[in-house]
């Protein structure tokens, strides 16, 4: 494979903002977007007129469509794109923004995720995904009775437990750690810490996933402003540079809730070499050993295990022990989702984790600050990645 185009540090996040995160439907989707947009503009020291590009991740019915978003916020956009309504395209959206500003197509691109999951139309949309002609994108298979998103995650987790002997304690420490992080975050919707005993006492939703393995649906919005590195250097706040990235993997070897080689759902089983997912590292000129913190999609906690192994932080089957030994906790080798993640802060498709990365790299996170954070990574079990540095 040819080396990636040299985009290292050519673009930067100049502003990041979010609305309040709630477990009730309190504001319309356009007002959630406006809250996040205003916060991002204030963070960047920009005006609405400075933004000339928009990337929208989550369209209707769970979110808001691009045309309604741009019209409602009064943005004159000359670069506009929207991904489909699934959370796993958040980092792809930021990559689109980086490519647009690097190519000179736009000057400042606003990346939006507006999540109105608790409104009637958003709830209905998520329920209807299972009833596509061949089932839903998360392993839903109505003809077999699998009607929920967590069914696919449960299948992958069951397979992992059988292959590698993942214990209840190791699995439980994922949610215990995330709740501990969220307890230090005033914006989190699930701030009450839990113990391993609490975890063990929680009911199964889809065996082997318990209640505390699954993050609740929430409402909220995030906005991330991307521009050229040269312009970012003049911003009032500290810019965060995009050093490397890679796209989401798809194909016969992939399942959205697994890493390759696990043999979950339709995947073939077999060995997996983490080196196949090194594009982002090569672009950034770093290795996994240089990463000070990892942020990942954790609506189901066990997806963290798959991400740790996919990117080579742990060998196959070793992620559970790494978690149980405190490896992903604040103060551990690789803190994960220091805001509580999707699981305990809010389900905003992971955009809230990117906002957290920006704040961590600026040293703004108080009690949950990663000491001397220099390089952070977003990386999913489905292969997409962003590497940010200060």
What does this structure look like?
It is a single chain. With 390 residues, the protein is an alpha/beta fold. It has one domain (11-389): 3-Layer(aba) Sandwich (Peroxisomal Thiolase, Chain A, domain 1). 31% of the residues lie in helices and 15% in strands. It has 13 helices and eleven strands. The chain has helices at residues 29-44, 66-73, 90-102, 120-128, 149-164, 168-182, 196-201, 229-232, 279-284, 303-310, 319-324, 341-344, 351-361; strands at residues 11-18, 53-56, 79-82, 108-116, 204-206, 209-210, 219-228, 240-246, 293-295, 375-379, 385-389. The strands form two sheets. The protein has a nine-stranded mixed β-sheet with strand order 3-2-4-7-1-8-11-10-9, sandwiched between helices. Strands 5-6 form a two-stranded antiparallel sheet. A hairpin with a 2-residue loop joins strand 5 (204-206) and strand 6. Helix 1 (29-44) packs across helix 2 (66-73). The model has no long low-confidence stretch (mean pLDDT 91).
- As for the CATH topology, it is Peroxisomal Thiolase, Chain A, domain 1
Average pLDDT: 91
Largest sheet: 9 strands, mixed
Please identify the structural class as seen in this structure: alpha/beta
In short:
The protein has helices at 29-44, 66-73, 90-102, 120-128, 149-164, 168-182, 196-201, 229-232, 279-284, 303-310, 319-324, 341-344, 351-361; strands spanning 11-18, 53-56, 79-82, 108-116, 204-206, 209-210, 219-228, 240-246, 293-295, 375-379, 385-389.
């Amino acid at each position: 494979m040819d080396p990636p185009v040299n985009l290292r540090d050519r673009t930067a996040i100049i502003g990041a903002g979010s609305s309040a995160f709630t477990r009730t439907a309190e504001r319309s989707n356009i007002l959630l977007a406006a809250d996040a947009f205003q916060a991002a503009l204030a963070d960047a020291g920009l005006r609405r007129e400075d933004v000339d590009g928009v990337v929208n991740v989550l369209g209707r019915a769970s979110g808001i469509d691009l045309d309604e978003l741009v019209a409602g916020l009064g943005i004159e956009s000359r670069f506009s794109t929207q991904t489909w309504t699934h959370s796993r395209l958040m980092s792809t959206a930021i990559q689109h923004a980086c490519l647009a500003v690097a190519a000179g197509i736009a000057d400042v691109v606003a990346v939006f995720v507006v999540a109105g999951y608790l409104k009637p139309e958003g709830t209905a949309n998520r329920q209807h995904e299972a009833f596509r002609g061949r089932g839903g994108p998360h392993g839903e298979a109505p003809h077999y009775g699998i009607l929920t998103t967590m069914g696919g995650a449960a299948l992958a987790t069951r397979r992992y437990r059988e292959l590698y002997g993942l214990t209840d304690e190791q699995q439980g420490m994922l949610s215990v750690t995330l709740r501990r992080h969220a307890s230090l975050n005033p914006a989190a919707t699930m701030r009450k810490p839990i113990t391993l005993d609490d975890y063990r006492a929680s009911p199964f939703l889809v065996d082997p996933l318990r209640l505390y393995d699954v993050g609740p649906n929430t409402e909220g919005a995030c906005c991330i402003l991307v521009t050229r590195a040269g312009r970012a250097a003049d911003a009032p706040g500290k810019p965060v540079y995009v050093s490397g990235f890679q796209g989401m993997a798809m194909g016969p070897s992939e399942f959205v809730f697994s890493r390759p080689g696990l043999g979950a759902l339709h995947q073939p089983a077999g060995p997996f070499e983490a080196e196949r997912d090194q594009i982002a590292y090569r672009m950034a000129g770093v290795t996994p050993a240089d990463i000070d913190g990892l942020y990942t999609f954790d609506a189901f906690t066990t997806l963290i295990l798959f991400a740790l192994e996919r990117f080579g932080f742990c060998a196959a089957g070793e992620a559970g022990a790494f978690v149980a030994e405190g490896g992903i906790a604040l103060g551990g080798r690789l803190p994960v989702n220091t805001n509580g993640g999707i699981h305990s802060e809010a389900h905003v498709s992971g955009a809230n984790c990117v906002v957290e990365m920006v704040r961590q790299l600026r040293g703004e996170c108080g009690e949950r600050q990663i000491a001397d954070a220099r390089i952070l990574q977003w990386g999913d079990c489905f292969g997409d990645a962003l590497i940010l540095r200060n």
